[in-house]
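Marked as duplicate of an earlier ticket. Keeping the data here for the record.
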Amino acid sequence: MTRPAIWDLFEREGHSIGVVNFPMAYPPRKVGSFFVSGPPIHESENIGHPPKVNDILESVNYRVDPERRPSDGVEAFYNEIQSLTESQLQATLQLMEQYNPELLWTVFMGIDRIQHYLWDEQIDGENAVEQFYKYMDTAVGSLIQAASDDVTVCVLSDHGARRIEKRVNVNTLLSEWGYLEQAKPGLTSSLKQALVNNVWSAATSFPRPVKSFIREKTPTEAIARFRSKTTASTRSLSKFVDWEQTEAFAVGNGGGVFVHGQDFEHGPVPDSGYEELRDELISEFTDVKDPETGEPIFEEATRTEELYPTVNERTPDITLQPKEWKYTAGVELEDERLQEPGDRVADHEPTGVFILSGDEIRGSSITCDAVDITPTLLYLHDLPTVETMEGEIRSEIFTEAVTDDRQRRTIPVFSPEHQEGSMNEEKVEERLQNLGYL
């Protein structure tokens, strides 16, 4: 992170903090009373700070990622997600008791996984998603009961979910339109890659003890060589593309589209042709239709800098928004541009949940943007925002005891003092692939 997180602002003002299962934060941040990294992580690494936190995690059999997959069966997968979530809940309760932080932030991803894969499934005669929401309601109740009476409780989701109807293969579209040139590997190369892919798929399904045994008995350099041939990008795209003839491609869950320009090693698109090509692509994506319904597949195809204030070389040049979020965008090169969604039958949509409860909160209902949450919570605790922070303070949800007492304060951007470290990119890619994000 290049900007301070909300916990940095709390700690800067002298408040104790505790964070559990925060995604994309490995190694654990050396901040606050305790910090437990969330996905993606490597299973053999310590994920808690300070180190003694790992003893608590071990005592409750804490896990970040499930050991079972949807293909193992509905009940097996459901029970695994509930067991994993329960381990995270018990760890949070023990950490609360031991450290008593003023700000506790814990992330539960079980609902996300259940919605993705079990949207239409039944558990004991009840919809699996509804049943898991009831379980999570009990889990949140346990946290509230363990806290002091004067706490403010915030329940927040970063997105909603809905059933998807079809998967659109963005790179297949680009190939059909002539912007992505598929490579033509020889028969031996194709067979070799297919063998590697099948072995990888089988290996990722092994139980954890089997994986550990294989890792112990296999030379490190052999594992590295195999990984180099089976990264997510290799399996899904790079071996099948003639990069010198490709003008545009899509990478990642959501199908972010990149113009293959001069910023890339083999990019054929000159700087002078960049905007013209973007205009062409946006027109193509806007016009493409579902042949069964005749309706547009994409609601919008937008220049990414129009959506985000800061972009860099890793930011897509075009961001796609599916029509009514009933399509999900993938990056596979398939024979068909549209397919059934497969195991991942539900996906994200923008409308999430924001619940705030406490003595200083009015009983009301509002519609707000996700970027409003952080400045609003900082304002409630009379803490400053940083100059570059987006979002509005939704002061109408607070009692007069709050609004009569404070104004929004801003401070210059600062770099957090803690050392964030880094994680091996191959490990990150492997975990994101297993989670379905690549």
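See parent ticket for discussion. Residues 5 and 131 are 33 Å apart (CA to CA).
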